[in-house]
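Quick one, tokens below. Sequence please?
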């Protein structure tokens, strides 16, 4: 049996607070549902978690903040698990207040190391009659009773646009709460784009793994259009709902081509590519975790044509060189600075 996160265990000690129709926002471990005797709706923004929830007979799964299964004033109790981003907490609380029926209850649970103390201030600003009901397993559990239902919630109202520019190519990039960099150009992606300009990819299909807001795919297609004439479309894949939503919006605004897929790793990716580019994540919640990239490197070879290139940017301290050599081929350094290194390897 998998070990539940502390926040989920803290909720289990307060099951008497779950009354009537219950909705969970941001649940990360479906195993919790085996110990909760409620038929409810569970929203996650993680494609892998959603796949697991789809096999659950006692719950209705929802992927992301605009899933059709999310219905106004449909829950008597809404449980909000604390997200990593404070801006996403505002989004999640707004959705909770729209989902909860008039006079219902909203519960917030999170760990100390996740920042529950600061999160409580946000909760009290939005739902002033909130109170702490438990402190257990390094977590706090808060509730607001007799909540007034909000009448409007539109994800589009939370979408923001950011202008980014690199190597003379400018883009409007979409951002939503909870997405890495929220549409801005982070330093790792910037140095990766520099290598694309200086040492372009070979013509052919391109896959952007962990595509985020779609910066790499949109930029590369615009760069090709202005400098090479022929343009290779770029497919993007990401595990997070907000990333997939933003990447699709970025592609539409930039008038570029490519499929944007929601997937846990490469699970739904089909076919082979001439090139795979990535600025992969190395955090799970607040922990450094390079296992996502290792799993990606183990499986990406079958999606590269013979001689196809993997181009990856990563923080210098991450142990990717040996993994790239093991699963793809001999790596070389295309660019580096005091924080990042861009690796290139071709499939043998």
């Amino acid at each position: 049996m998998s070990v539940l996160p502390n926040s989920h265990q803290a909720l289990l000690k307060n099951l008497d607070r779950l009354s009537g129709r219950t909705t969970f926002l941001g649940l990360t471990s479906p195993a919790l549902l085996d110990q909760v005797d409620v038929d409810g709706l569970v929203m996650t923004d993680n494609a892998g978690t959603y796949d697991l929830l789809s096999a659950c007979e006692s719950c209705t799964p929802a992927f992301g903040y605009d899933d059709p299964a999310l219905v106004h004033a449909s829950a008597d109790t809404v449980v909000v698990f604390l997200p990593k981003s404070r801006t996403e907490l505002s989004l999640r609380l707004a959705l909770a207040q729209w989902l909860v029926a008039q006079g219902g209850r909203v519960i917030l649970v999170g760990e100390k190391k996740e920042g529950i103390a600061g999160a409580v201030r946000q909760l009290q600003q939005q739902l002033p009659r909130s109170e702490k009901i438990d402190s257990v397993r390094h977590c706090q559990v808060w509730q607001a009773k007799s909540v007034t239902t909000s009448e409007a919630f539109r994800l589009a109202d939370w979408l923001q646009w950011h202008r980014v520019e690199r190597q003379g190519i400018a883009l409007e990039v979409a951002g939503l709460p909870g997405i890495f960099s929220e549409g801005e150009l982070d330093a790792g992606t910037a140095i990766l784009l520099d290598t694309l300009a200086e040492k372009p990819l070979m013509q052919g299909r391109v896959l952007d793994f962990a595509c985020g807001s779609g910066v790499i795919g949109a930029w590369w297609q615009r760069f090709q259009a202005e400098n090479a004439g022929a343009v290779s479309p770029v497919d993007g894949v990401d595990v997070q709902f907000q990333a997939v939503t933003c990447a699709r919006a970025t592609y539409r605004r930039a008038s570029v081509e490519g499929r944007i897929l929601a997937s846990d790793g490469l699970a739904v990716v089909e076919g082979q590519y001439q090139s795979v580019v990535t600025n992969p994540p190395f955090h799970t919640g607040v922990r450094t975790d390079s296992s996502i990239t290792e799993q990606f490197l183990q499986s990406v070879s079958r999606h590269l044509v013979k001689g196809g290139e993997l181009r990856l940017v990563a923080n210098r301290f991450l142990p990717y060189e040996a993994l790239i050599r093991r699963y793809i081929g001999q790596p070389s350094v295309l660019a580096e600075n005091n924080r990042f290194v861009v690796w290139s390897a071709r499939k043998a």
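The two ends are 40 Å apart (CA to CA). Residues 6-155 form a domain with the Rossmann fold fold (CATH 3.40.50.150).
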